[in-house]
Task: structure prediction
Amino acid sequence: MVVGIIGAGACGLAAATVLEQAKIKYIILERNNKPGSKILASGNGKCNIMNMENMSLNKELIAFLKANSCPTYFDLEGRVYPLSNSSKTILNVFLDNISKENLKTNELVTKIVKKDSCYIVNDYKFDKLILATGSSANIVLSKQSLCYDYLSSLNIRLTELKPSLVGFKVKEDVSILKNNRFKVEVSLYNDSKLIAKENGEIIFKTDGLSGICVMNLSYYYNHLKELKDPYLRININPSFSYNQLKSLKYAFPDNTYLYFKDKDIHNLILHIKDTYDIKDAQVICGGISKNDVNIDYSLKLDKNIYVGGELLDEDFPCGGFNLSHAFRSGFIIGENIKNEIYHRI
Ligand SMILES: Cc1cc2nc3c(=O)[nH]c(=O)nc-3n(C[C@H](O)[C@H](O)[C@H](O)COP(=O)(O)OP(=O)(O)OC[C@H]3O[C@@H](n4cnc5c(N)ncnc54)[C@H](O)[C@@H]3O)c2cc1C
Result:
C-alpha cells in the first residue's frame, strides 16, 4: 500500500507527517524545486498559522507543534505565529517529521491514470491519493492552470474560481492617491445594505485599493449571492473630527489633501468595479465542492482519493484561518487513511 500525495504545501506535508509516524508508505510529488512556497510567503514571512478564534478546531496542529517544541504566540488581534517569527521554522518542523527521500520535487502532475485499482502518476504507482495542490492564488497567469489541469483526467469538477483576500478596482479615479496609506474604517455595501465593516490600513493603487481590511471585505464580496451596485464606504482617520482633518493640509500625505478637498473624508464612497486578479490574491474562492466530498475528505466518486486544503471550495478571511484549514485537513486525511489501513488489517 503506497499513498501518493500531490503537493508539498501545508495540507500535503501535514498528511505526510501522520503517514510517516504510522509507518505507512507514501511519496509526495511537488512541482516546484522546493516544498512549502506558500507556507514561506504566509503572514509576510512570519506565518500566521492559526487564530485564537478557532483554536478548538486545531487540536492536531497545536499538539504537533507542542510535541515538536515549537512555541507560538498570539498578537492583539488573536493571530497565532511561531515564536521565531519565521515561516521557515514552521516549514522545517514539518520537513523534519518526514523522510526526505519520500519528497520528490520538480514533479509536475498533469495527468493521473486509473488502472485497475491503482493510480499512475508520472512514474509512480499508488493505491491511494491525497490531492493537496492548493490553488492558483498568487501564481503568475502562465502557471495558474497547472494547479488544476490534472483534475480533468479524474473527472473532478471545480466550482467557479474567484480571487479572494485581494484588493478592489474601483470606478472612481483614485490615481492621485496611489501608494498612499490611510488608517480607515471601511464598510462594504451591496444593494444599499451594509455587508461587513473592517478597521485597518488601506493602500491605494492606480485604479483601486488594497490592505488587509479591504482584503477581508473581498471575502464577503465573493460570498454575496448577487452583486447589486457594490461599493465601499470609507471613513478616513475615524478618530479625528471632520474639522481637524479638513483644516490641516499636513494631515494627509503629500498633495493627497487636494483630492479630499471637496469630499466628505468620513464618508468617501468608492464603487467597486471588480477585484484584482488571481495572481494578486492570497487565496481562491472556489475549488472542489464540499458536496463532492465525504466527511472524511474522500471524494464521493472515488473513496480512495482524498482532497484537502485550498483545493477545496472553502475559503476564510485573513488571520490564520486558511493555513490552519489546510494543516487541519491534512492531519485529518492522514489519520483517516491510517485508521482505514489498520482497521482493514
Ligand atoms: C502571499 C500569501 C500570504 C498568505 N498569508 C497567510 C497567512 O498569514 N495566514 C493564512 O492562514 N493563510 C495565508 N495565506 C494562504 C495560505 O498560504 C494557503 O491557504 C495555504 O498555504 C494553502 O495550503 P495548501 O496545502 O492547500 O496549498 P499550498 O500550500 O499552495 O500547497 C500546494 C502545493 O502543491 C504544489 N502543486 C500545485 N499543483 C501541482 C501539480 N499539478 N503537481 C505537483 N505539485 C503541485 C504547489 O507547488 C504547492 O507546493 C497566504 C497566501 C499567500 C499567497
Observations:
- The pocket of flavin-adenine dinucleotide is lined by residues 6-12, 29-32, 37-39, 41-43, 48, 107-109, 132-134, 137-138, 146-147, 150, 282-283, 309-311, 320-323, 326 (CB under 6 Å).
- The chain has a mean pLDDT of 95.
- The chain is about 25% helix and 25% strand.
